[in-house]
Amino acid sequence: MTPDERRALLRRAFDAGVAAAHPAVCMPPHFPAPPKGRIVVLAAGKGAGACAEVAERFYRETHGLGPDRLTGLAVTRHGHARPTEFIKVVEAGHPVPDAAGLKGAADTIRLAEEAGPDDLVLALITGGGSANWVSPADGLDLAVKQATTKALLRSGAPIGAINTVRKHLSKIKGGRLARAAHPARLVTLAISDVPRDDPSVIASGPTVPDPSTLDDAVKALERYKVAPHPDVAKALADPANESPKPDDPAFKNAEFLVVSRPAEALQAAIRVLEEAGVEVRIVGADLEGEAREVAAEHAAIARGLGAVARPVALISAGELTVTIRGEGGRGGPNQEYALALVTELGGLADWAALAGDTDGADGGGGSPADPAGALADPGTLERAGAKGADPAAYLANNDSTGFFEQTGDLLLTGPTCTNVNDLRIVLVDTPDPAPR
């Protein structure tokens, strides 16, 4: 394959993975029948606008429901709204929550509390819901929640640890939305963006029992060296902020179903690669860890492939992390992974890699124009050399966006209106038989 053909194949595989997880594909088969009363749709996350659009279309066209029977609110990331008539869609901050998310969460709780025994509360959850639904526990304000979120994101903590803290500083996360909706029937349809598809971690589990504890939250802050604000320390010492457990009455009339998973996006991408005659090797379906370290491991596998009869793709999913060491750098774990690959695969010919977040945003400042990740190949190093851009220096400063801006290799998709975690593919066309 030529360099352009490799890049085009990687992009087709990535796009196929994203398309397989769109709410229009995965949600309609699971929508419950209308109840005697109303359907109250409550959605959150980067795909919440699309979830609301799809649900509204389904219940209008399939069941003829009007605004007297169909209502609700979706809170999504800025730039991710979709057109609806009956279900209101608002945009809010991500990954750092903002005032719009604060109001959106308050309105969501109110709608849940207003639902009666004859109503159905239909919660449509996608990744990003933790930031979009922000409702600080008593004694906390938005600024403290924002500072805590920023510190956790910089610490390199995995999403499970971050959400353990979030759940114990919230009035909506960790099963508390289920309490608000009781005694109405509650059905949650979720698009998973977390390793192993843990319902209590997806959007911080607002409608399911929470297995984590206040003590777990304290230990997570200690482990990742995040010094808590005094108000946070006080909240985590208050037994009133413990999250509801499985025996809570709120869950007796609640159902939860994951309708799309990272593994399904992975398989959709694999089908595209195999149809192109590529041998696919899965190197992790639920990977976690430091982005640059995982990239080094994958580069070593690529270099050690030896002679093969056809191109080989190393493919992985999961959610990597970045521990911020530099100052003023930009980028997310996918771009950092790609940049680390560039430094590790220097001198290897005929390879290409794509690392992207299926939601269309990898790090960034919360703009819909943020990059989804990056593409890289030997040409990346050539362009970097022509620009005087040292990949190792950019990596040391956690400035992967700055590097790939120089080389023209950013992956730009815009909002995809779904989120099933990251996809990473390293394609080796003619492997180097000698390990580095």
Automatic annotation (TrEMBL):
Q: Which organism is it from?
A: Hansschlegelia zhihuaiae
Show which residues constitute the signal peptide: none
A GO cellular component annotated for this chain's UniProt record is: cytoplasm
Q: Where is this region: Disordered?
A: 359-383
Annotated MOFRL-associated domain residues: 10-236
Q: Which UniProt keywords apply?
A: Kinase, Transferase
InterPro entries named in the record: GK-like_C_sf, GK_N_sf, MOFRL, MOFRL_assoc_dom, MOFRL_protein
Q: Which PANTHER family match?
A: GLYCERATE KINASE (PTHR12227:SF0)
Which protein, by its recorded name, is this? Answer: Glycerate kinase
The UniProt record lists the MOFRL domain at 312-422
Q: Which GO terms describe its molecular function?
A: glycerate kinase activity
Stretches of Low complexity bias are at 368-379
